[in-house]
From TrEMBL:
<comment type="subunit">
    <text>Tetramer of 2 alpha and 2 beta subunits.</text>
</comment>
<dbReference type="InterPro" id="IPR001017">
    <property type="entry name" value="DH_E1"/>
</dbReference>
<keyword id="KW-0786">Thiamine pyrophosphate</keyword>
<dbReference type="InterPro" id="IPR029061">
    <property type="entry name" value="THDP-binding"/>
</dbReference>
<feature type="domain" description="Dehydrogenase E1 component">
    <location>
        <begin position="94"/>
        <end position="376"/>
    </location>
</feature>
<keyword id="KW-0560">Oxidoreductase</keyword>
<dbReference type="InterPro" id="IPR050642">
    <property type="entry name" value="PDH_E1_Alpha_Subunit"/>
</dbReference>
<dbReference type="Pfam" id="PF00676">
    <property type="entry name" value="E1_dh"/>
</dbReference>
<dbReference type="InterPro" id="IPR017597">
    <property type="entry name" value="Pyrv_DH_E1_asu_subgrp-y"/>
</dbReference>
<keyword id="KW-0670">Pyruvate</keyword>
<protein>
    <recommendedName>
        <fullName>Pyruvate dehydrogenase E1 component subunit alpha</fullName>
        <ecNumber>1.2.4.1</ecNumber>
    </recommendedName>
</protein>
<comment type="function">
    <text>The pyruvate dehydrogenase complex catalyzes the overall conversion of pyruvate to acetyl-CoA and CO(2). It contains multiple copies of three enzymatic components: pyruvate dehydrogenase (E1), dihydrolipoamide acetyltransferase (E2) and lipoamide dehydrogenase (E3).</text>
</comment>
Amino acid sequence: MNWRNLGAYADCFLSLGDTGGQPGSLINFSATVLMARNKKISKRNNGGSDMRKKMFFFQFESPPLIWDRRQESKSKSTPNLLITKKEGLELYEDMVLGRAFEDKCAKMYYDRKMLGFVHLYNGQEAVSTGFIRLLKQQDSIVCTYRDHVQALSKGVSARAVMSELLGKATGCSRGQGGSMHIFSRKHNMLGRFAFIGEGIPIATGAAFTSKYKREVLKEADCGHVSLAFFGDGTCNNGQFYECLNMAALWKLPIVFVVENNLWAIGMSHLRATSVPQIYKKGPAFGMPGVHVDGMDVLKVREVAKEAIGRARRGEGPTLVECETYRFRGHSLADPDKLRDPAEKAHYAARDPITALKKYLIENSLANEADLKAIDKR
Ligand SMILES: Cc1ncc(C[n+]2csc(CCOP(=O)(O)OP(=O)(O)O)c2C)c(N)n1
Ligand SMILES: [Mg+2]
């Protein structure tokens, strides 16, 4: 590789990804709901899933590249807690802040105080918190238009994000970006992109910059990693594949975090994607592919630790697919009439904040009063 020539590209950046603990459970659940709801759709999905089963049979899979969380959890007796009290409360606070911020946005939007397109993150908080709270300030992230909560997790103040949403000059993008373009140089938030897939090459470029500075320019303190967040719908976009290839080829310090919430606006992931298990696409490019339960912040954090550590050690990229769900419509302008109420109820019962609360209380890491105090802040 000619590092000197490639250095010309070193000012670009990219990131994405996430995984889960029960590969395919979300997909199977949704297929069942769709089948039960509509005979016509049922036929199509049923046929599709039979076909997919056949295709998987012929697929090459490299076992060491896929971390199967189900097998790991079976083999582990888990005598130790996954987090300390301090960590647990920090995670809880971060998730509650994200949820409260988004609820406030919804209220302001429906009161006509906030204008334009606004895409909320309710339900997906475990992904942002699980990954971003492990990062250092130097590490960079790139997101899509569903971006407010990741900014908060990275340390941008709620005031700066809210001011941005209201178009004020005190906003983190000087009021010129709005909801879909949250940016903060100080926090290495390299931007949010309304065109899906656009952020992935940016995050990849950031990872390249880090490697170039460390290996060619010999800047000892340059070991930052880059995270690219994007959705399931974005994985059908060409830039995703091009960047997986470059990142694996050059062993870039990046984690591709896919937030698979099963829908791309009103298009079901199953109807749009030939191989819906996104994590399986990592090994095709020579990088680990991990699936994680994106409604469980502790599982996300465990996978994130491994993937970020791998990137930081110079061992290359990881593709992580997080199974998650958005609790609101695609944007606040979406009446959300397409998704089946049974599907919504299923995921509402798996609220990541309620789940963490339960874990903290059951393991005596917090009591109701501790958590209520955080809720009130
Ligand atoms: C290049 C491009 N094509 C199409 C669109 C229109 N579009 C906006 S959001 C969206 C769906 C994206 O779904 P997903 O990646 O799953 O993200 P989610 O909204 O579920 O977080 C599409 C197709 C776009 N913004 N950019
Ligand atoms: Mg989606």
